[in-house]
Each structure stands twice: as C-alpha cells, then as structure tokens.
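Write out this protein's structure.
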Amino acid sequence: MSKKRRRHSPEQIIKKLRDADAMLAADKSVGEVLQALEVSEATLSRWRSQYGGMKSEEAKRLKALEEENNRLKKIVADQALDISMLKEITKGN
C-alpha cells in the first residue's frame, strides 16, 4: 500500500520544522518525530536545508520568487525558439 504524496505549503513546512525542533528538544527520538510529522528523514533534511531559520513571510517570498523565475525562464526559452525559427525562415529566402 503506497501513501498518497502530499504537497506542503511553505508555511506548513516551517510549522513542521518548528514542531520537529520542539519534539527533539523534548528528548523524543528522530524516528518518533518523523512518524509524528508523517515525513521521511530525507524530506526533513531537505526542508531544513531549504527553509531552516526562515520565517513564514520569507518562505512565501521565496516561493513567489521561484515561481516568477520559472515564468521568466519559460519566456526566454520561447523567445529563443522564436528567434531560431526566424533565422531558419530567413535562411531559405
């Protein structure tokens, strides 16, 4: 039986990281913390490296910037494709 994959918002990730730190400070084992948060050790580690020490507002801003960056990359790729097509068309004339 496979678990359904969930997407967590940056706010949820930061809350879970705070909860994990609190549980570890309360002398719970890493296994217990992972089970309580319902995440894997790799996920927790990745979240710590990406969101560690951030506040909720900073995480929202990071997510917005990443989305804008992806949108701009797509625009540049589309323009490069258009330029390439125009060069091919003019080469034939």
